[in-house]
Amino acid sequence: MGDLTAPSNIVITTEVVGQDATHPDGDGSGNVNITITAANALAYKVGYDVKSNDDYKAIALTGKVTKKFTKTGINTYKITALVTGKGGSSSIATKDVTVRSDFKPAASLVTNLTGDASKTWVVDRSVAAHFGVGPWNVASIRPEWWAGAVDEKLSCCPCFYDATFTFTKIAASGTYTLKVTTISAFTKTGTLAGGLPGIPSSGAEGCYDYPGGTSDFSFAPASSGAPVEPTDPGNSTTTQTSILLGGINTYIGYGACLKEYEILEITPTYLYLRVQGTETGNAWYIKMKPVGK
Prior knowledge:
By secondary structure, the protein is mainly beta. It has two domains: about 90 residues, Immunoglobulins (Immunoglobulin-like), CATH 2.60.40; about 180 residues, no CATH class. Helices cover about 5% and strands about 45% of the residues. An eight-stranded antiparallel barrel has the order 8-11-12-15-16-17-18-19. The chain has a four-stranded antiparallel beta sheet with strand order 4-3-6-7, with no helix packed on it. Strands 1-2-5 form a three-stranded antiparallel beta sheet, with no helix packed on it. The model has no long low-confidence stretch (mean pLDDT about 95).
């Protein structure tokens, strides 16, 4: 393997999209193009306002990634580059970036989700296709591979239906939180659990001990690219708005997913979500209802 030379000369370059003399913090999209370079580098990971090692995500060997920051207003974030070299040797560098995000979800969407205070949702086991999977692409916005029947997971995984998800709007700060309450989470294991606490490193899909969790979340433009009015009548419509969970301690419905849940439909009594699975190529669909409905 040769000398275990740690990476050096790490440089983080940021381009705030739309930044100019008139718009010093960007165009309001929240997008920042990030390039990381280093000597003796074999792999790159990047994190934002890192609190633990689980907050780092691998990026391409080019060291390039685009990050969308979605907290409304002008905010400063700390970008941390973790660069790995031979034999697992690593080095870290940080850089602050200030960026503006103007995204505001429709007021009716916020009201339907949070009740403008707190509102608790559960997976709606009483309807067909309350859980399903299809390909992760915009040509198919439907669970074309498999859709669950009523009570499909009751015998194997009752925690799927017992877990509650409370979305709270904090009016004073204009922020949002999600509280997950359950003694076990319905998920895959290992890396497919997306860092959820307490999930074992191996095992089949099922219910696993989970301490519950609370995290912030924000609304963001959906990154899927799905059109509001699809050309294929078999596809679902979309609000083009996503719930973006902060950290790794929370999930919605199914644990083996990434943290951006696109809201396909929402009413005061119905929430239909689409989320990319931690397994490449999967799109999961979840139908929910308020507790007691």
